[in-house]
Amino acid sequence: MLKAGMMSVDISPEKGEELGGYPHYPRNNTGVHDPLYGACMYLSNGKEEAALVTLDLLFFSKKHVEQVRRRAEEACGIPGSHVMISCSHTHSGPWAAGRLDIESLEAGKEQPREYVEGLIGKIVDIIVQAKAQAFDAEFTAGAAVCGAESGVGGNRRIPGGPHDPLVGVLAVRETSGKVRGMFVNYTLHPTFIHEWSTVCTADYPGYLRLQLQELEPEAVVCFAQGASGNQSSRYYRKGESYDEAERVGRLLGKAAHSVLDRAVWKNEMEIAVASQELPLELRTFGTEEDLVEKVAQDKKNYEELYAKYGSSENREEYYLWQNANLKLLGSEDQLGYVRMQKQGIKIELLEDEQPAEVQIIRLGDACVVGVPGEVFVEYALYVKAMAGFGTVLFNELANGCLPGYLYTPESLVEGGYETDTSMLGEEFGGHLVEKVLETIRKVKG
């Protein structure tokens, strides 16, 4: 008989804590618009067990994941290697990993140690409690569609470009039929709330959770981010507001719930877990002199476009100067990295995340893929197509971070903010995908 347990905890920061997500626009928390949550889905078939944890955070460092796993294993016996910790990637929560923006690195800004230590304890507690309160359960997995066609989101680099509209769902219920938990995965940057906000919010995933809990009042809802490195609402949203975050969150919540309408529930299933590691591969940015010239040219281009379109209310004209601004920030970061490496200054988001971990959790006919970092969607689409499972959830920012976006070689030719700010080499994405598929084969037996 399958056992399942669900547990959640408020992980909102205190007032005054710095909010991550828009590092070029420093913000300190002035309150809570809606709570941030950590949530856990525990599953056991009597032979194997696994815990899927989600956090309403931008990043969560690999070194913190290692602490959680060790402490949870000591406390309740779940193998640390069977715990996957993923992030929603909200841009209005506290820092819980190293930084990559050059201003913060040069200023010596660090993670809020007291908050992070308390957070680690809370995560361990919900894992332990989810196992302790496990109930006889039935499980289902599936997916619904909700994407650009619904005005939700898509490719932020190329309007109409590659995107993943699937809303992936895992759900558990009591044998009586009462739904007790849902794990939802979707591929879209939570950036409806921008740098103008100084309060913490889960962004659209908060409204997705609210929608599902209105439909299933006893359910704990986990939300994990898909491969959204190049996915956002940029060309699809009606504005940057809580109203728009709610519109999208509720649409996605309804789509997720529709999976239950056609669900096949099972009280037995195979659980298998496998993981592998691979070293990070880094790129070179050229000489400091060349980068000084690049920054000057990008700055000139941005200032010209801002002078022409900065006060325009036309969205297309807004994107012209805003994309130029992002490109300038990218080239400034490259120059900063080169200077910091020359000075021997530690970059936590690089050194604390070595080596990268790939983790696969098989749940019957479903497969959960966990990889670190912000990943371009093309990689996830390929993995989903090649995995050989009926339902595949691709969790980015799982079990750690990466020093920049995991871009495609094709996108490097075009350039832009994501590629310009990444320290990763252009072949690393392909090597990581190979490792993912190799690890998937291990759980197939």
- Helix/strand order, N-terminal first: EEEHEHHEEEEHEEHEHHHEEHEHHH
Distance between the termini: 22 Å
Q: Evaluate the radius of gyration.
A: 21 Å
Q: Can you count the beta strands?
A: 14
SS class: alpha+beta
Concise account of the structure shown:
By secondary structure, this protein is of the alpha+beta class. Helices cover about 35% and strands about 20% of the residues.
Descriptive notes:
The protein has 445 residues and is an alpha+beta fold. Helices cover 37% and strands 21% of the residues. It contains 12 helices and 14 strands. The protein has helices at residues 62-76, 102-107, 113-132, 204-215, 242-261, 288-309, 315-343, 348-351, 377-386, 409-414, 417-421, 428-444; strands spanning 3-10, 37-44, 49-55, 83-87, 135-145, 154-155, 166-174, 179-186, 220-225, 231-232, 271-278, 356-363, 366-370, 391-395. It has an 8-stranded mixed beta sheet with strand order 4-3-2-1-5-7-8-9. α1 runs parallel beside α3, α4 packs across α5 and α6 packs antiparallel against α7 (315-343). The radius of gyration is 21 Å and the shape is globular. The mean pLDDT is 94.
